[in-house]
Amino acid sequence: MASPLRFRTWPITATKNIFPLLQEMGLKLTAEEIDGTSFSCGAKPTFSEALVSVGSTGRGGTGSFISDNGLIITNWHVAHEAVRVASLAADKDYLADGFSANGQADEIKSPYECWITTSCVDVSERVMAVIKAEPDPLKRANAVRDCTQAIAAEAQKVATPDGSEGSVRCDVQEMLPNESYVLFTKTRLLDVRIVYSPPKSLGNFGGDTDNFEWPRHTADFALLRAYASPDGAPATYSEQNVPYKPRSSIVVSQSGAENDDFVFLLGFPGSTMRYAPVSRLRFEDEVTVPARVADFGRKLSMISKHEKVSPEAALKLKGHKKGLGNEYKRCKGKIVMMRKLGLIKERAAEETALIAKAGEEAKKVLDRLTAIYGELKEMSAFTAAQDALQGIYGGSGVLSAGNLLNEYVNHEFAKADEERESRFRERNLAILVKYFKNRLNDVVLPYDCEDIADAIKGASVFDELSGFADIIGDDIQAACATSHEVLSANLEKAMAGDAAAMEAVKNDRFVRAAGSMYDAYVRNRDKERALISERDELFAKLIELMRAHSGKDVVFYPDCNGTLRISAGHVSGYRAADAVQHLSKTTLAGVLDKAGDAKAGGGGDVHEFDCPDRLVDLVQRDPSKAETPCCLLYSTDTVGGNSGSPVMNANGELVAVNFDRQRQGLMNEYKWSSHFSRSIGVDVRFVLFLVGVYDGNERILKEMLRKE
């Protein structure tokens, strides 16, 4: 059921083990040059040290250093939130117009930070001791939570003996349930600035129409820069800060890559379920994905109405619109591809074969897993109604903050730190506060009010949730406006334990409404937590049986979980349909063709394919520019979180920046296919063309090409 060739995304720590395979595929580097987390390399830089996880809380996408002065390349859509916030602060729409810094003094402060993975340490023995000691599923889940948080807190304290708060982040990640746990240590760079971002007409060329499609012509890249204190240490924003000097950076190729060339990438892919039993796949197909399609579609419809209120409202809602739109189309595509490829039927046949080999033990495990997902399905309607009242998945920021503050102020604050839920422990509070401050800053009250009304309506069928509406009252708009003001003014102070602020939020209407359903929330949360704990125990047994009854050459690597990974493949087209063969590269000529067709009414939304006139004029003056490569297609194994991953050639030179998959690759969460799984990146030659020729920024171009 598993092999290295079938599961083509590996933890960074597996680099040494898979090196013969990478070498056979075309890699010309050594394992020691790639993985800086497992080898003692001294002063020698490694590619993993050039990788960063980037976002408002250090997570969201992948980026990589491409100069010795902290210059980071990532995706336009990964940098989207930073550029959106900068636009609101400056009252300029940098998303629509683009931005190109003339000098370092012009680079724009952002709310982003980036994290560099510096070490990976196996802590499975300590966690497994806790797991084996507790038979009760709920108590075991809580014990694992406490153990992993304690390990991370201890490591973080050791990593910052000088007490420098926030410069290091340690987390324990489950790699294989009830088997493998790894402590990841990351350096946090807290001052990240915007250097270059193409206009939306290029960075999001094709919009939703081209999303997850090929051929693609999108300039989905952006440049950021990490800064540090004058002595090189991580530091929050200051005018005295200087560009960060990374231990490692990736050389930018000027020649790109061609068909059949070997490529590999590093990144932080979010999640996969490659070993999922039929019961879990059916739950995804019948419950999780359809529910998200319906929910996201409803919210996108609301956004399309409320973004028209004002330019400020449009900017505030763009983050939700971008994220929800991407997930909406991705979920719809997953349903189609799962059924088209007959994934459930294929997995069912594998399970039948396993039962034939392993007998009653395998059947018992699979039957209980089916029962667990049956219970989760029975809970799903209540869970969805409860989630809506908590404002998750791009819902109301007021709902979200009200639930947070109720849980912390009324329940978690009084507990000893080691007894709190994970997110409310002292070491996690600063990140939590930062996230929720951003949520409240971006509230558009008419959107929030409509989402709240929908959430209350959906919850009305459950008696345990009915008290929420009674507390909010009939005038949702007035209640929402008042609470937004109270919560915005007091959130940070209340989370810091300020008595007056805590009292203010305790009396807030949305905090009290959240309190009315808190007991029901805890019961549902703990029931789900116990079921997942039991599921993980059974899943570990299933993996053990699969190993015992598979060939010696079969290797089981952990599913993706947001930690640093390596994947490899080749630049390659694919057979899209009968008599339709897609090539592996697009050019600037295609940008002009699509833009022209849209303007002529021949296909596509003219706003999604609105190529800047300046670019059209430039190509018309020099037709040879039309041959500039735009996007590249390759067979690496990617999922969400690989956005911004550097795509490198056999020598480790940057040839593209990963940003998408084509439609057939949307089933990558469940299975990688040599025939269908293709990832899409911005060709480095398009990046250099736009920075150096289109925008004429010689300063940045020279830095990228190391000509300073």
From TrEMBL:
GO terms of molecular function: dipeptidyl-peptidase activity; serine-type aminopeptidase activity
Pfam families: Peptidase_S46 (PF10459)
Keywords: Aminopeptidase, Hydrolase, Protease, Signal, Virulence
SUPFAM superfamilies per UniProt: Trypsin-like serine proteases
GO-annotated biological processes: proteolysis
Organism superkingdom: Eukaryota
Family named by the database record: Belongs to the peptidase S46 family.
Protein name: Serine protease
Organism encoding this protein: Triparma strigata
